[in-house]
Amino acid sequence: MRRFLSIFATLITFFAFSYPQEDYIKKIEEQRREKDKRFATSEVSPLSPVAHFHFDIGSPLKISISESEVKEGEFEDAPHILKFFWEGKNLFLEVLKGEEEIKIDGASVKGKTEIKEGKRIKVCHYVLVYTIQTESIARIMVYDVNSPAKKNFKGLNYFPVNPAYRVKAKLIKNPNMEKVKILTYQNILKTFVKYGFLEFEINGVKCRLTAFKMPDQIDSKELFVPFKDKTSGNETYSAGRFLDVEEEGDECIIDFNLAYNPLCSYNPHWNCPLPPKENELNVRIEAGEKVYLKED
């Protein structure tokens, strides 16, 4: 989902250095409008979760679903009852009740069905999606297609695009590449690789940010950079923001116009890593996404 929020980062950086400033600004503004459209229309909009269920990998989970609620457990009065269970490292679904009205990515469910990460299970006006959270924890996220938050959405909030917040940074790779645990919004520890350090100057202030990678994506060119700055808790989300930075040898481009909010800023059912203390900048970053103003 992080990629869902920042899919245009690499493309925008290309435009920033290959086209005049006016074109660069227009391109970012266009991508922001496209992101707003996804938030407003997608059946798995980040705004629309109404429940989530964490469960241990290897342990079963039962979910009962009615028009008005989704809850853990097997309740006889519920028109739909789902059982998730594991065979080795693979997750399967067995519909205990209401099979005829359940679809996976548009296809009817017949008997025991293997569930891959990201597959959409449609039940009533809900969409259920399974993802792995940590080495030992899985999650079923429940989205409401008719979510009022999605219907009332008026758009995300941003600072005006400012090319001055697009800077070059020196990438110093971490010789140890150690795995570290980062606390999340829901007090779960997620494992990351401390890949390197980005050193740069902005607004006359010398800065340094730690860049991370997922352990199973160490060969990826994408660096994950969670950070806070002097706008955090004021114009921007109090828990910080994220950047996706493209690794380019020993020098990278950091474009703070592409800074985006973690999903937990939109909805409490999300589980987002919190920026570590070392990534708190002693400078105002007046670029990128501002705090989300929820609509009533």
Description:
- This protein is mostly beta strands.
- Helices cover 14% and strands 38% of the residues.
- The protein has helices spanning 2-6, 9-18, 21-41, 148-151, and strands spanning 49-56, 61-65, 70-72, 80-87, 90-97, 102-104, 107-108, 113-115, 120-123, 126-132, 137-144, 166-173, 179-183, 189-202, 205-213, 222-227, 241-246, 251-255.
- The strands form four sheets. A six-stranded antiparallel sheet has the order 1-11-10-9-6-7, with no helix packed on it. The protein has a five-stranded antiparallel sheet with strand order 3-2-4-5-8, with no helix packed on it.
- Residues 1-18 have low confidence and may be disordered.
- The chain contains four helices and 18 strands.
Order of helices and strands: HHHEEEEEEEEEEEHEEEEEEE
- Mean pLDDT across the residues is 92
Strand content range: 35-45%
Q: Which residue ranges are poorly predicted, with pLDDT under 50 across at least 5 consecutive positions?
A: 1-18
Q: What is the number of independent domains?
A: 2
The SS-based structural class is mainly beta
Helix content percent band: 10-25%
Most strands sheet: 6 strands, antiparallel
The count of DSSP E runs of length 2 or more, i.e. the number of strands, is 18
Rounded to an integer, what's the Rg over CA atoms? 21 Å
Shape: globular
Strand order of the largest sheet: 1-11-10-9-6-7
